[in-house]
Amino acid sequence: MPTLRVMPKIVTLTAAAARRIRSLMDANPKALGLRVGIKKGGCAGMEYTMAMVEEKSPHDEVIEQDGAILLIEPTAIMYLLGTEMDFQTDKLSSQFVFNNPNQRGACGCGESVNLVPAAEKASHAD
């Protein structure tokens, strides 16, 4: 009998993040969920991208948690492994926050991050 290997979730959602995604989905009845990706840009090298989408791309990873649907672009998977996504509100802003173990740094304004793929990070630990 083959041994099953349980893969960790790419991203986990806090209760606040799941509530916010559900409220965004409720506000747009055609929306399937929130798609998260990574693109090159900003002074630290990479930026998170987020958009409400109406359909799944063929290779999106789908995470369903507490009624919230998060779709992860395939090119972002290695950068997001082990990430916790939160939603925080303070006096001046409300925003999604990524607690990402693959992040090596961020720019001063908080708009971009320096990310290392999870496999590369593991090879540097040796």
Give structural attributes.
19% helix, alpha/beta, disordered C terminus, three-stranded mixed sheet, 126 residues
Descriptive notes:
The chain is α/β, with parallel strands linked by helices and 126 residues long. The protein is built from 3 helices and 9 strands. It has a 4-stranded mixed sheet. It has a 3-stranded mixed sheet with strand order 1-6-7. 21% of the residues are buried. Residues 121-126 have low confidence and may be disordered.
Low-confidence stretches: 121-126
Number of beta-strand segments = 9
Percent helix range? 10-25%
Q: Over all CA atoms, what is the radius of gyration?
A: 15 Å
Enumerate how many helices there are, as a single number: 3
Q: Strand arrangement, largest sheet?
A: 3-2-5-4
Shape: globular
Give a quick account of the main beta sheet: strands, pairing sense, barrel closure.
Answer: 4 strands, mixed
* Average residue pLDDT: 83
Strand-residue proportion:
35-45%
Broad structural category? alpha/beta
What is the string of SSEs from the N terminus onward? EHEEEEHEEEEH
The first-to-last residue Cα distance is 32 Å
Give a short overview.
With 126 residues, the protein is an alpha/beta fold. It has helices at 15-27, 77-80, 118-124, and strands at 11-13, 33-40, 46-53, 61-65, 68-72, 83-89, 94-99, 103-106, 113-115.
Strand and helix map with partners:
Blueprint: E1 11-13, H1 15-27, E2 33-40, E3 46-53, E4 61-65, E5 68-72, H2 77-80, E6 83-89, E7 94-99, E8 103-106, E9 113-115, H3 118-124
Parallel strand pairs: 1-6, 2-5
Antiparallel strand pairs: 2-3, 4-5, 6-7, 8-9
